[in-house]
Design goal:
mainly alpha, 2 helices, 0% strand, membrane
Length: 132
Amino acid sequence: MSGGEIAGLIAAGALLILVIFISIFLMRITKVMKNVEKTVDGVNQSLNTVTKDVDVLSSEVEGLLVKSNTLLDDVNGKVANLDPVFKAMGELGTSVSDLNTSSRNLASKITSPKTVRNTMATRVARAVLRKK
């Protein structure tokens, strides 16, 4: 065997080893790609499920918002109707306070010693005039 034949055999062996390593690498890459494909399929299924759930939730939330707006409009209308009632109650409180002040002033005038004397003197004078 000549040097060229030996070099050819070495090159052929190296090429065979290279092909074996490349085929092992490709088999591993194939397994990884299959796992990635399974993972992507699982993610797509999960995403579809989540999308359906979000659609259901969004329709529920929309319904709740409509109901909330209706209730809020109703409450605002009722509060607007109550405003005059509270205003009238405030005015009534002011009137009662004024009446209490006037009653106290009248009571203090009637029960003052000067008023009592005048009243008693008037009664005595009437009684004396009646006896004559």
